[in-house]
Automatic annotation (TrEMBL):
Organism: Oldenlandia corymbosa var. corymbosa
Annotated protein name in UniProt: U-box domain-containing protein
EC assignment: 2.3.2.27
Catalytic activity: S-ubiquitinyl-[E2 ubiquitin-conjugating enzyme]-L-cysteine + [acceptor protein]-L-lysine = [E2 ubiquitin-conjugating enzyme]-L-cysteine + N(6)-ubiquitinyl-[acceptor protein]-L-lysine
Domain U-box: 15-89
Gene3D superfamilies, per the entry: Leucine-rich Repeat Variant, Zinc/RING finger domain, C3HC4 (zinc finger)
General function of this protein: Functions as an E3 ubiquitin ligase.
Keywords, in A-Z order: Transferase, Ubl conjugation pathway
Pathway field: Protein modification; protein ubiquitination
Enzyme type, top EC level: transferase
Keyword Transferase set for record: yes
Length: 420
């Protein structure tokens, strides 16, 4: 195939050598691997081919007698060199891929980490390697889960009920691994049903290491969200210091995206327990949510706004949000800016605030809520969001300036409120 080329890359006019393209996807290979027939494919393409039930080589149609994929390091280096040589055309060098975990190695590491008879340093080393593999890819995490129940291996270490020699460092490494894997409902109940386990996790929220604090919060969120029992959920949300610990993670001063993500997930899960929402408010949840709202990514911003709406449903939360100078302007600004869900939660929070406080109505009008709500009711947003917007428009009708659009036909069309 020497000198053979196919279609140019994008619109640059640059032609890519044929043998750098995957025969399945026809795209530039990022992780070339060779199968038993001698043909080379991009790893993701050949894995998808086999996963859909194909048992032959796509090019030769010869049956694959061995499904082992051997990395073609020579070809990958040639592709990388070609990328560097053509960077003036906007071609980015493909990164050197991390190789998937070996099942035999994973099995050995799990045995090494879980055995109480092993030396502490040996168990610690195994846990660190497992943590690194799990962090590398979803595929590695799936492999680890397929070999052993992660909870059965690591829960006894985290809660020190496995016997043998143990240390805080070993516990924290096990916690870091456990926080990356989902737990079954039975496993969540096992953790949540014991006050000592609950108390221990909450105590870790004040640890000197932010990693330990975030991993503890991640496990708390997982357990609370995975437990159906209202009593067990309440046991967590009523634990002394839990809201202070979670909000401390949200307020962590340095740039740490995972702290924000885990912190808001945990806060939302805990605030689903209505009788303890006042504890979140007392711990400073209002300032934390409003002050960090602009820092959240889309999905996390949705959770943050959902939490704002939940807290606005209780008297202390509504008062605290209404007293924060930035709350109403931020909520008005967010409408139609992030997602349909975010719009729905922002409109719901504004409805609660404006229903309770006249000064919130004036702030909303001054921030331009009229235009936002009129756009919302005419958009493709959710029906719930539109109903909230219609209710808010009706509530604010007397607050519009005399010469505003409030007296227009457009406004009149929005005041026929559909009840929840």
């Amino acid at each position: 195939m020497r000198g053979r080329f196919i279609e140019p890359l994008d619109n640059t006019g640059l032609q890519i050598p044929y043998h750098f393209r995957c025969p399945i996807s026809l795209e530039l290979m990022r992780d070339p691997v060779t199968v038993c027939t001698g043909q080379t494919y991009d790893r993701s393409s050949i894995e998808s081919w086999v996963a859909t039930g194909n048992t032959t080589c796509p090019v030769t149609r010869v049956p694959l007698t061995d499904f082992t994929l051997i990395p073609n390091h020579t070809l990958r280096r040639l592709i990388q060199e070609w990328c560097v040589a053509n960077r003036s055309f906007g071609v980015e060098r493909i990164p050197t891929p991390k190789q998937p975990a070996d099942p035999g190695v994973v099995r050995s590491l799990l045995n090494q980490a879980s055995s109480n008879s092993n030396h502490l340093n040996s168990r610690l080393s195994a846990l660190k390697r497992l943590r690194g593999l799990a962090r590398d890819s979803d595929k590695n995490r799936a492999l680890i889960s397929s070999i052993a129940s992660v909870a059965e291996v690591f829960v006894p270490i985290v809660f020190c009920n496995g016997g043998g020699s143990i240390s805080d460092e070993l516990i924290h490494e096990a916690l870091a691994v456990l926080a990356m894997f989902p737990l079954s409902e039975a496993q969540c109940v096992f953790v949540a049903s014991d006050s000592d386990r609950v108390g221990y996790l909450v105590s870790l929220l004040s640890h000197s290491s932010i990693d330990v604090r975030v991993n503890a919060a991640a496990l708390i969120e997982m357990v609370v969200a995975g437990t159906r029992s209202p009593e067990l959920r309440s046991q967590f949300s009523n634990a002394d210091g839990i809201f202070e610990g979670i909000i401390g993670i949200l307020n962590f001063p340095l740039a740490y995206p995972r702290a924000l993500k885990v912190g808001v997930k945990a806060l939302f899960a805990l605030c689903l327990v209505k009788q303890h929402r006042h504890r979140a408010v007392a711990a400073g949840a209002v300032d934390a949510l409003v002050d960090r709202l602009a820092d959240f990514e889309k999905c996390d911003a949705e959770r943050a706004l959902a939490t704002v709406e939940l807290l606005c449903r209780i008297t202390s939360g509504c008062h605290a949000f209404a007293s924060h100078a930035l709350t109403v302007p931020l909520l008005v600004k967010i409408i139609l800016k992030i997602s349909d869900r975010a719009t729905e939660y922002a409109a719901g929070a504004l409805l609660s605030l404006c229903s309770a406080y006249e000064h919130a109505q004036r702030e909303a009008v001054a921030a331009g809520v009229l235009t936002q709500l009129l756009l919302l009711v005419q958009s493709d947003c959710t029906d719930r969001a539109k109903r909230k917007a219609q209710m808010l428009l009706k509530l604010l009708r007397d607050s519009w300036p005399g010469d505003s659009i409030a007296n227009s036909d457009d406004f009149a069309c929005t005041t026929d409120v559909v009840p929840f």
